[in-house]
Design goal:
Two copies of one chain form a homodimer. By secondary structure, chain A is of the alpha/beta class. Chain A is 46% helix and 16% strand. Chain A has a six-stranded mixed sheet, with helices on both faces. The first copy, chain A, has a five-stranded mixed sheet with strand order 5-6-9-7-8, with helices on both faces. The longest helix of chain A is centred in the last third of the chain and has 26 residues. At the A-B interface, α8 and α9 of A face α8 and α9 of B.
Chain lengths: 337, 337
């Protein structure tokens, strides 16, 4: 039997905790025998939710924790003080090697801080970036960094490009992934100071398939597989992606309800539209891994439903089986030698 | 009779020059008696296009220029060397007071450089920002700066907020416009170094209706009237806005063509969808003004059609009649005293 991948799931994090979190994690273990879920959180809350489902006993465990880190709490303080929170205890299990991965929809700040402080960085990795997959016209692209390291330096972006390439190649299965840097024009002399300094360095890297600048307009087209940028810019891209999509949809829906004719039409197009939207639904792709840690930390969306949690848990299996962290360690060590 | 607003239109700039440019400008003079258009560009090309239409003789003039600045040319060099280009001559007319405004769909770089070097800044304005109106769910917001000043400093962003407020109040007619700063979280302590430094300064400005941080996700909702950000971020926002919209539409169209049922539905919803899309069409709002110059410079989209050019020209009338530059001069001088 294949070795089980042990995934800690933070049952207390996110807008829909614990109900959707527990549901999604149960769906994950029911779909694959090679996953073991370890919930951290208030035992009675988790058990109450678990009662609604059936699942293989040996694939689910609960580690009771009494505290919860709220989204609004200053992250550094929260991580330091709430020793018995679902996040701190869960990351501790990864740190001690008692689990392979940690999935949470809780406070992004606390997860970023905890990942660095509790789980720790792979030797040589300077800044672990948050790297979600975003849907495009032709598939998915990895956006790295989308929120972990504001005001990053060129060397950090190079590491983002490397780690992102490994992820896209090994987890998503894209051969020789194309790496682009977010810029405000196609030419090498365009950009802000950070991009101008990083561009020639990326060009020199023989182990990176660098295709040059990518304008934000081209991102939804799927022009590259790994989109490298500083975290502030990446966060703006990720959130605007979500924001325009949802406003666009609500406006179209409103438009469709404006006349009897369009209402009839709306009924007819519903199945086709649903299919189209599914391919543009980020929750299909699970959460965002924090790359470059001694273990895997996955941040799923604060508003995650069971589907995203399920996909986030399953994502941890490929990450472990494809030995992503070993590959990152090798590649970063090579470069630093 | 009301005084005419004299608008120089660069007949050579943009993907659709000169045909769409001339067409749009003629539509503008035909729609209002208070506009005079002065074309700069190759006389024979402009005359050939003009022959297709009728228009009041005293509202159109041609100033022949022999050179054209291409989009790919390094801007500083182009402005310096091509003295007889449609951009340099056109901006010169504004500088000399022989025209009130200059509209071009040509090289953004050349227009930004030319605006500063040839037309010149209003005394006290440090960096003139490019400020397009972007469509939102509830109307429009002004995005300032969307590409003129990468790596700006906090003091620049304060001026963007002031000039943007004047524009929204006087040209768009929004009373006491709400100003937000683009950030990656709602709390004051979030953000990169620039935002953290700018936030408290904006809060202190009594003449700015500052509502705090705005996340990119909220921008399409129309949560504020003036969106302040550094140019790299603003450019990413503007282009991603365009990019997601167009990919989304092409995917929906493709989805609608996928079955007979959805094809019939598509026919029925077409009018309603068209109306919805119109309200989200940036070209309805003309081009982007470069704020804070001694005269008005408007950059319209490189792919502008006649409609955007017409709207860009008409936009110059409100700008002049509402005495935007006088208001900017007064407000900036007050602050610097």
């Amino acid at each position: 039997m294949q070795e089980q991948v042990r995934v800690v799931v933070d049952a207390m994090g996110g807008d829909n905790a614990p109900a959707e979190i527990v549901k999604g994690a149960v769906e994950a273990v029911n779909s694959r025998p090679d996953i073991k879920v370890i919930f951290t959180g208030r035992k009675e809350d988790i058990e109450r939710e678990l009662q609604k489902y059936t699942w293989p006993r040996d694939q689910v465990e609960i580690v009771h924790t009494s505290e919860v880190i709220e989204t609004a709490e200053p992250p550094v303080n929260a991580i330091r003080k709430k020793k018995d929170s679902s996040i701190v205890v869960g990351m501790g299990l990864v740190k001690k090697g008692e689990a392979d991965a940690f999935v949470s929809s809780g406070s992004t700040g606390a997860i970023l801080v905890g990942g660095q402080v509790l789980v720790g960085r792979i030797k040589g990795v300077e800044r672990p970036p948050l790297a979600p997959l975003i849907p495009t016209k032709t598939g998915v692209s990895l956006l790295v960094d989308c929120g972990a390291n504001v005001d990053a330096r060129p060397g950090h972006l190079l590491q983002f490009a490397r780690m992102g390439s490994i992820y896209m190649e090994s987890v998503v299965g894209v051969k020789n992934p194309r790496v682009g840097i977010v810029n405000i024009g196609a030419e090498e002399e365009k950009g802000n100071a950070l991009v101008k300094e990083t561009f020639p360095l990326l060009k020199e890297c023989k182990d990176i398939n660098f295709i040059g600048s990518v304008e934000a307009r081209e991102i939804p087209q799927g022009v590259c597989d790994v989109i490298v940028c500083e975290a502030f810019v990446g966060n703006v891209i990720l959130k605007l992606y979500e924001g325009t999509g949802s406003v666009f949809m609500s406006m179209i829906k409103k438009g469709l309800m404006s006349s009897l004719r369009s209402k009839v039409g709306a009924l007819l197009i519903k199945p086709a539209l649903k299919q189209t939207l599914k391919s543009f639904d980020a929750s299909e792709y699970g959460g965002a891994p924090l790359l470059g840690l001694n273990g895997l930390v996955v941040k799923s969306h604060g508003s995650s439903t069971a589907k995203e949690i399920k996909n986030s848990v399953i994502q941890c299996v490929s990450f472990k089986q494809e030995r992503i962290n070993e590959k990152i360690r090798e590649r970063i060590t090579e470069q630093n030698d």
